[in-house]
Amino acid sequence: xxxxDAVMRRVFAVREREAMDAATxxxxxxxxARVRELTEAVVHTAVDPAEAAAVAxxxxxxxxxxxxxxxxxxxxxxxxxxxxxxxxxxxxSGALNPVAPPVEIExxxxxxVRTAFTLNGVYxxxxxxxxxxxxxxxxxxxxxxxxxANGTPGMTATLELRYRRPTPWGVPLTAxxxxxxxxxxxxxADAVIAGPDGRTTVEATAMFIMPVGAHGDGGSSGDVADGDxxxx
Length: 232
Ligand SMILES: CCCCCCCCCCCCCC(=O)SCCNC(=O)CCNC(=O)[C@H](O)C(C)(C)COP(=O)(O)OP(=O)(O)OC[C@H]1O[C@@H](n2cnc3c(N)ncnc32)[C@H](O)[C@@H]1OP(=O)(O)O
Fold this sequence. Notes:
This protein is of the alpha+beta class. The protein is built from 4 helices and 8 strands. Residues 129-185 form the Thioesterase domain.
């Protein structure tokens, strides 16, 4: 087990969960993608009530088929080649979670993280624009990934959002995050979401705290990953 692997497991108390083979993961990712399409269709559909009721009955039957064999907990945690925990069913980035857009996070050469994504009408808040809580969720995840990429993962202690202008849905968005400071168990990071014109729509600052004991020494140090810091 790598140093980062061990720290991430302690920080997030990742328990061993039932292993998932690649074929199952691919099949469930495909299922989640179809359910995302279904969700979008439900939000936009204009079919008549009888048709909506008929489809609801079919969806209930499909849920019953899936529930015929259940895991006790969502599938989690694969440690990626970069040393970061990949949550397969994370609600922001998990390919196996239909609620997730999903937002795919990549590492940047400067030690930060970035993502390019498009949110559809499922995530609408004000008419034509993304719900502010959805932007916060995406930014929390991205900021957390930046803290982890810095080798100083933790729990979100504070998350401050500044909504500069509305974030449109249905168009390509980008978001970036980077750690600004790490002291002891605390790590601060900044992030922005930008619209297709490159203008910032939301800014965020977060502080993450590594829980006591996560480092295995009472949590007094911020250099959690030592020489094994995850970098993309
Ligand atoms: C499986 C995992 C996958 C991960 C994938 C990678 C990407 C991850 C992406 C994840 C993204 C999503 C991530 C999520 O969704 S994380 C989920 C959302 N966050 C939480 O649920 C956190 C809940 N809170 C806690 O667990 C504890 O309160 C924590 C751990 C935060 C601190 O409890 P602890 O007992 O350790 O604290 P302490 O009392 O010893 O205080 C220590 C110091 O900290 C200061 N302080 C404390 N709290 C706050 C506060 N709220 N604001 C400002 N300051 C605070 C305090 O004054 C003191 O300062 P000082 O006196 O020393 O100066």
